[in-house]
């Protein structure tokens, strides 16, 4: 489902996440450029705890920050369905990147995490993350 650039925001995220938690069909969700912040990502993270069909989630070009990255990291520790997560261009800093890297240690399902482009992560940390985990792009 492609819902890019619809100004969904955190409020709309709550409604979408409620639907996602009961979904048994949707495998791809593109929410690019929807003004989603940390609270909105928390709704999606909660939904992903119950969802067993979503394999691709694209949240790039939002404002999830370190808080949103931590919510996603928490769910990635136990999620066994999501294979691709795109969260580049999201104002994620080094703290958020570290949470995600730690979560990947316990997750063997995620094949690709797009994190690098236009976030606030030093090149030193990015090099270290990529060296330790080839799923990070």
From TrEMBL:
Task: Note the PANTHER family from the entry.
Answer: LEUCINE-RICH REPEAT-CONTAINING PROTEIN 71
Q: Name one Pfam family in it.
A: LRR_6
The organism encoding this protein is: Rotaria socialis
Coiled-coil zones: none
Q: What is this protein called?
A: Uncharacterized protein
């Amino acid at each position: 489902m492609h819902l890019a650039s619809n100004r969904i925001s955190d409020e709309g995220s709550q409604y979408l996440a409620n639907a996602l938690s009961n979904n048994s069909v949707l495998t791809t969700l593109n929410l690019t450029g929807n003004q989603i912040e940390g609270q909105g990502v928390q709704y999606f993270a909660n939904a992903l705890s119950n969802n067993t069909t979503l394999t691709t989630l694209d949240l790039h070009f939002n404002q999830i920050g370190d808080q949103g990255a931590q919510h996603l990291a928490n769910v990635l520790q136990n999620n066994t369905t999501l294979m691709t997560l795109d969260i580049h261009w999201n104002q994620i800093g080094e703290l958020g990147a570290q949470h995600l890297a730690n979560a990947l240690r316990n997750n063997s399902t995620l094949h690709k995490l797009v994190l690098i482009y236009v976030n606030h992560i030093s090149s030193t940390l990015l090099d270290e993350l990529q060296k330790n985990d080839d799923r990070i792009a």
